Predict the structure.
Amino acid sequence: MPFSTDRENRNLLAKLACYPKILEARNSLTDLKEMISISMRMLLARVPQGIYNMTNPGAVSSSHIAELLYQHGIRKEPPLFFSSKEEIAAAMRAPRSSCVLDSSKISRMGFPMRDIQVALEDAVKIMARGV
């Protein structure tokens, strides 16, 4: 799941800052700016073609992200969560999934990404300055 510091409606952090209720899930995340930078470095280094999981190492829960946004004043209300599968089904337009991807391949190639907790904390701090 991609995220950035931009306050636009497709950004995961912006979504979790304003959704009244949140689906609890644990996922891999990708800092878009970091992914673009590393992608360019990989292109210039002419790495072999293939499939690369461009995610920041680790996984994070939506409750952790929402709480972080709340602590930094980006989310105005404490997060509430869906309590049942029926409630989720009634609120969502499409089914949701969660997954944790292994990004060790790009790291072994010499293009490590920052740990997700570090990348997420940095992004939230930048967003908070713009509040």
The first strand starts at residue 2 and ends at 3. The chain has one domain: 2-129. The first helix runs from residue 12 to 18. The helical segments are 12-18, 32-44, 62-71, 85-91, 104-108, 116-129.
